[in-house]
Amino acid sequence: MGTGMPNAVIVGTQWGDEGKAKVIDYLTERSDLVIRFQGGANAGHTVIADGRKFIFHLVPSGIMYPDKVCIVGNGVVFDAEQFLREVDELAEYGIGVNGRLFVSGLAHLVLPYHKIIDGARETSMGKGKIGTTGRGIGPAYADKINRTGLRVGDLCNWDNFVTGMKEGFELHRTIVTTVFKADFPLSFDGLVEQYRSIRERMLPFISDTAALLFTAQRENKQLLFEGAQGTFLDIDHGTYPFVTSSNTISGCACTGSGVGPAAINHVIGIVKTYTTRVGNGPFPTELDNADGELLRKEGGEFGATTGRPRRCGWFDSVMVRKAVQLNGLTRFALTKLDVLSHFDEIKICTHYEIDGKRYDQFPVDTTLVEKAIPVYETMPGWKCSLDGCSTWADLPEKARAYIDRLRQLCYDVPALIVSVGPDRRQTIEVTPLS
Ligand code: GDP
Ligand code: IMO
Ligand code: MG
């Protein structure tokens, strides 16, 4: 039976790493199914529960709860090797997944040659590179859209799979060695052997997940959709070309899982109370100074997937206003407020100036974003630990004033949650879902 929470989509409102997984883990307790619907193993989702830390790349972050069902939807590009590695790591932690973890047969496979071409293309772009995670995401989505990809369900028909993989292997080998003039360190025979054993292990997970979700809705079960990346990495709405290769906004929860829009009751935007970005591309409020260093140090801002230092800056309300619009946000979950406890003063970007003109709206033209000068207002810091704060009233007055101002600048979206630490317990509930 249902657990009482309406169906909700969780999305990042900035450039990823907002703390989505922490919030998903927290909300999983009152959901029945957790569903990934886009992206792939480029995601790095960190859950800390009962003192245990786990970084998920493909398995939904709800899996830590033993009775919840987790689904990898059709919109994901699926790296089977990484997925099985996560399943093994979970087993080492004593977390079983059998019978409650399902992968859509329609999800496209990321194969080793996608990762090779991802790296070769980046190298060939030199300084203009995107700074991808190297997980083969763009090339796998390119094959999908080009109708030349292999899907998880193709593993069921081994002979066809091998034929398809041979075509993909030869095509990518030719491009890597002749266009990018790079190494292609992969043998086809080795690949076949590797996928023969992957296939054996994958077969029990392959399902018609859209049908499963339909049945779950008929049974009044609660669905929690786990977005990856963030609004400004969206292939359409983000800072193109410095984006990922999928739609990351809430609308993708439907196409990436096979449920209708009416199934979704709430859209929760995860908002880091400052801003970070990994990889290249414009970042108006980026701080190349001691404040940026302090955010990185206190926030532990190093990539969960690649270990790269994250670029850090003040909160940018221009971006988050746009995220409210694009995702139809009904709630915020505001994260990492504790990190700001170290600052005497905290700045909020209210608008930009570009070529001497005021911009309250995030420009759709990336070259304008590159020229944006952030205009700030300054708020006093609270300079004390938030440890032990478990209700809104427990928070220092100046911290509450910061959150109130931030929300006010972003259409007054109510806060479902304020997060004051990485652990499940370090969570303050403010305005419940209704
Ligand atoms: P995701 O990709 O959006 O799921 O976020 P990541 O896991 O990549 O990065 C968020 C990081 O911040 C992780 O290391 C989390 O454990 C941590 N985190 C999440 N919420 C909080 C918080 O409120 N305070 C602090 N200090 N850390 C947090
Ligand atoms: P989560 O889900 C932050 C960034 C990369 C690069 C761009 C394209 O943990 O928030 P890709 O490998 O997708 O082709 O890289 O997107 N990127 C992320 N940044 N968090 C992520 O995921 C990201 N996934 C991709 O750094 O700039
Ligand atoms: Mg992350």
Question: How would you describe this protein?
Answer:
This protein has 434 residues and is of the alpha/beta class. The protein has 2 domains: 1-75 and 208-434, Adenylosuccinate Synthetase, Chain A, domain 3 (Alpha-Beta Complex), CATH 3.90.170; 108-202, Orthogonal Bundle (Adenylosuccinate Synthetase, subunit A, domain 2). Helix content is 31%, strand content 20%. It has helices at residues 20-28, 80-92, 112-125, 137-145, 158-179, 188-202, 209-218, 252-255, 290-299, 317-327, 366-371, 397-408, and strands at 8-12, 33-36, 45-49, 52-56, 69-72, 77-78, 101-104, 108-109, 206-207, 223-226, 266-272, 275-277, 311-313, 315-316, 331-335, 345-354, 357-359, 373-380, 415-419, 427-429. The strands form 5 sheets. The protein has a 10-stranded mixed β-sheet, sandwiched between helices. Strands 14, 16, 17 and 18 form a 4-stranded mixed β-sheet that branches. Strand 16 (345-354) and strand 17 (357-359) form a beta hairpin. Helix 3 (112-125) packs across helix 4, helix 3 packs parallel to helix 5 (158-179) and helix 5 (158-179) packs across helix 6 (188-202). The site of 6-O-phosphoryl inosine monophosphate (IMO) has 24 residues, from helix 4.
**Poorly predicted runs of 5 or more residues:** none
**CATH architecture assignment of the largest domain:** Alpha-Beta Complex
- What is the mean pLDDT? 97
Distance between the termini: 19 Å
Question: Beta-sheet strand percentage?
Answer: 15-25%
Give the % helix. Answer: 25-40%
Biggest sheet, open or closed, and with what strands and sense? 10 strands, mixed
Q: Per the principal axes of the C-alpha atoms, what is the gross shape?
A: globular
The CATH topology of the largest domain corresponds to Adenylosuccinate Synthetase, Chain A, domain 3
The bound ligands are: guanosine-5'-diphosphate, 6-O-phosphoryl inosine monophosphate, magnesium ion
Contiguous helical run count: 12
What number of structural domains do the residues give?
2
CATH class assignment of the largest domain: Alpha Beta
CATH superfamily label of the largest domain:
Adenylosuccinate Synthetase, subunit A, domain 3
Q: How many beta-strand elements? A: 20
